[in-house]
Specification:
With 168 residues, this protein is mainly alpha-helical. It has one domain. The protein is built from six helices and two strands; from the N terminus they run αααααββα. A two-stranded antiparallel sheet has the order 1-2.
Length: 168
């Protein structure tokens, strides 16, 4: 049995075609996963914010002394006469209440893809059509039937040789 080199062309062509199709799709998938992680982090912060606001409103409704004292000091610039003031703010800071309640903003790592040679080739609009054409040519060459040299030095197709041998 003679090894047919067409299989090598067919395999190489299919691998290049798969890379041209799958690498950009994988990049897009990873980008969407990163966006999904960022959205989930923002959703967690929003849920925490709602929970903290509900707790704050409940504490104000229950008239908890600590919350009422802090609220009066922050919003009305009032202090408890029984306590000694350590630091007095000249201008009232209206964002104190929000600072107590608001959670820290969600921090998500920046999305970056590894910068590989294969990724640069398959994503480059000038090179991508050439990769597809070259891979298609390799697949075509790989699908062509194998040939054998005849005794007279010419090339004959293996199908013709099998047909002529069968008819004789």
């Amino acid at each position: 049995m003679i090894f047919d080199s067409g299989w090598l062309f067919l395999g190489a062509g299919l691998v290049v075609l798969a890379a041209v199709v799958l690498v950009p799709a994988h990049d897009s998938l990873e980008q969407h996963r990163a966006q999904s992680r960022a959205m989930n982090a923002q959703l967690d912060v929003a849920r925490l914010r709602i929970e903290r606001y509900a707790d704050f409103i409940a504490a104000v409704d229950r008239e908890e002394p600590t919350v009422i004292r802090r609220l009066a000091a922050a919003e009305l610039n009032l202090s408890d006469p029984n306590r000694e003031t350590v630091l007095v703010s000249v201008t009232p800071n209206r964002s104190d209440v929000q600072r107590w309640i608001e959670p820290q903003p969600a921090r998500t790592p920046e999305f970056t893809l590894p910068n590989t040679h294969l990724r640069r080739l398959t994503r480059n609009p000038a090179v991508r059509p050439w990769l597809i054409a070259g891979a298609g040519l390799c697949v075509l060459v790989g699908l062509l039937p194998p040939t054998r040299r005849s005794r007279s030095g010419g090339v004959e197709r293996s199908d013709d040789a099998d047909i002529s041998a069968a008819s004789a």
